[in-house]
């Protein structure tokens, strides 16, 4: 893993940990205690992010500085330019001159990251304090107040993109995307700075900008030109065949005028040393004429169209990635293991993709229906347990209806319209079955002995079978029977998803 990839991963993991902190359940004496605990955990995570970020930025800068120096040495060797052939990129990077440049670039990049982290920290703290005040004002019991805060925070952090960096124009960028952009920009600046710093040390004062197609309208003005990195080289140091002074645009008044060692963030363009002594005066004249042409967007219609199509493809990719992340959150065990795999199945509109989307939409639709009653916020506690006896003695949950209903109340599962029938036949212990839904008497759920193995299994069974009840009510008996495999697959996924949700909501 490169330092750039490592840096991006650090921010991605930090975002997940911050959100996990917000969602984490626990017992707290009061809303104020919960608030202090939350603020303390968030600050600890942000401090860790700053430390890890700074360390990895140093690695990123040194790695790319040495890489760029290596390219510089190889390029100069090819044309026989005078350099110290025994010196290595690593030795150059550790020289007094280059160490100062590395430290400066790393300090600037770390500063940008810390500003972003501080913004997120302030926004997070403001949100937590606001929610605390609102929840406390409702004068609920301590347990209800804390649960309300947790619910509100989760909804707010999702809806308002708190873990994002705002811009002056009102737009915002998720912290992971911001990290990607800053990491790429720092890589570009580091590579470019290595070229100019070491080049000047060896007596080179011209650099050449790469050219790419398609490219944006800004870069189109600056690419493919030769720039001076000293005022002397910009204003007539080099001569034409007739002795006329040759002019070159000064890099820091044109392409790098904004104070960065790159044209703009995320820029692909790089500069490299332009060895003027390797060219004849006639050739230098042509470079000068091309480089001093007006800074205008000279792209053809075809090039503009190609760039527009490239940007449209990037937007599609971003939308696909967002979709992939949403599906993974709902169906973690069914979504493809990689984003590339998801894109392939979507592009071919495979049967697997169609089934995945059908299950995803169905689960979301059911979850949003208030009348479904699958998930409620009501909570309760289990009554005292009684042991099963005889052949059922190893089953942890008593095989009695009141324990089923008590468990449903505990986890907020509405039993309105549901009738539970407990089947106590010993023969059923030999079958790998937990429950069934009556297709004729819709709303009846039969629970088999193995469903009472433990509370988790009973909870999963009830969720699973209740999903089948919803399917029967929505589609009817015939459709469900004709599409039994699909119905069963959806119920298993629904069970997996909502088991996790109800456990969290029950504060266990």
Structural descriptors:
508 residues; mainly alpha; 59% helix; three-stranded antiparallel sheet; 10 strands; 4 domains
Give an account of the 3D structure:
- With 508 residues, this protein is mainly alpha-helical.
- The chain folds into four domains: 1-202; 204-299, no CATH class; 301-368, no CATH class; 390-505, 2-Layer Sandwich (Zincin-like), CATH 3.30.2010.
- The protein has 16 helices and ten strands.
- The chain has helices at residues 3-23, 31-78, 89-93, 96-137, 142-159, 175-201, 217-222, 231-234, 281-291, 301-330, 339-347, 351-368, 401-410, 455-475, 477-482, 484-505; strands at residues 164-166, 172-174, 206-209, 226-228, 235-239, 245-247, 271-273, 419-422, 435-437, 444-447.
- The strands form four sheets. Strands 4-3-7 form a three-stranded antiparallel sheet. The protein has a three-stranded mixed sheet with strand order 8-10-9, covered by helices on one side. It has a two-stranded antiparallel sheet with strand order 1-2.
- Helix 4 packs across helix 5 (142-159).
- The protein is elongated.
- Mean pLDDT is 82; it is low at 370-385.
Instruction: List SSEs in N-to-C order.
Output: HHHHHEEHEHEHEEEHHHHHEEEHHH
Number of helices: 16
What does the average pLDDT come to?
Answer: 82
Shape: elongated
**Domain module tally:** 4
Structural class: mainly alpha
Count all strands and give the number: 10
Beta-strand content bin:
5-15%
Through-space gap between termini: 37 Å
Give the helix level as a range of percent. Answer: 55-70%
Radius of gyration: 32 Å
Quick one: biggest sheet?
Answer: 3 strands, antiparallel
């Amino acid at each position: 893993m490169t330092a750039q990839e490592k840096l991006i991963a650090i921010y991605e993991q930090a975002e997940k940990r911050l959100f996990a902190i917000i969602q984490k359940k626990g017992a707290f004496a009061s809303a104020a205690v919960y608030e202090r605990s939350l603020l303390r955990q968030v600050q600890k995570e942000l401090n860790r992010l700053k430390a890890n970020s700074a360390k990895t930025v140093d690695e990123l800068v040194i790695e790319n500085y040495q890489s760029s120096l290596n390219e510089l040495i190889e390029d100069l060797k090819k044309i026989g330019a005078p350099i110290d052939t025994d010196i290595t990129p690593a030795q150059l990077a550790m020289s007094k001159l280059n160490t100062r440049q590395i430290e400066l670039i790393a300090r600037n990049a770390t500063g940008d990251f810390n500003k972003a982290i501080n913004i997120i920290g302030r926004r997070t703290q403001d949100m937590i304090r606001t929610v605390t005040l609102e929840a406390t004002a409702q004068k609920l019991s301590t347990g209800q107040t804390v649960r309300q805060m947790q619910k509100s925070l989760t909804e707010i952090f999702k809806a308002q993109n708190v873990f994002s960096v705002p811009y002056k124009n009102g737009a915002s960028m998720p912290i992971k995307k911001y990290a990607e952009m800053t990491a790429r920009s720092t890589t570009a600046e580091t590579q470019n700075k290595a070229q100019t710093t070491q080049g000047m040390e060896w007596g080179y004062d011209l650099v050449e900008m790469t050219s790419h197609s398609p490219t944006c309208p800004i870069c189109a003005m600056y690419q493919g030109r030769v720039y001076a990195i000293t005022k002397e080289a910009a204003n007539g140091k080099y001569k034409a065949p007739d002795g006329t002074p040759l002019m070159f645009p000064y890099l820091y008044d044109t392409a790098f005028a904004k104070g960065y060692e790159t044209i703009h963030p995320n820029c692909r363009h790089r500069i490299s040393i332009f060895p003027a002594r390797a060219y004849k005066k006639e050739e230098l004249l042509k470079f000068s004429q091309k480089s001093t042409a007006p800074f205008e967007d000279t792209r053809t219609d075809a090039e503009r169209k190609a760039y527009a199509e490239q940007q449209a493809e990037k937007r599609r990719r971003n939308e696909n990635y967002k979709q992939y992340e949403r599906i993974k959150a709902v169906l973690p065990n069914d979504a493809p293991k990689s984003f590339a795999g998801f894109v392939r199945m979507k592009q071919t509109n495979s049967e697997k993709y169609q089934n995945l989307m059908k299950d995803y939409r169905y689960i979301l639709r059911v979850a949003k229906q208030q009348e479904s009653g699958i998930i409620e916020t009501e909570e309760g506690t289990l009554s005292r347990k009684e042991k099963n006896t005889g052949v059922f003695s190893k089953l942890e949950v008593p095989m009695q209806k009141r324990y089923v209903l008590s468990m449903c109340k505990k986890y907020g599962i509405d039993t309105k319209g549901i009738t539970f029938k407990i089947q106590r036949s010993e023969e059923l212990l030999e079958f790998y079955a937990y429950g069934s839904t009556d297709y004729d008497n819709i709303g009846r759920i039969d629970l088999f002995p193995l469903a009472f193995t433990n509370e988790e299994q009973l909870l999963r069974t009830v969720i699973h079978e209740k999903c089948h009840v919803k399917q029967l009510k929505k589609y009817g008996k015939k459709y469900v029977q004709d599409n039994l495999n699909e119905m069963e697959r959806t119920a298993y996924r629904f069970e997996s998803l909502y088991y996790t949700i109800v456990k969290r909501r029950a504060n266990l």
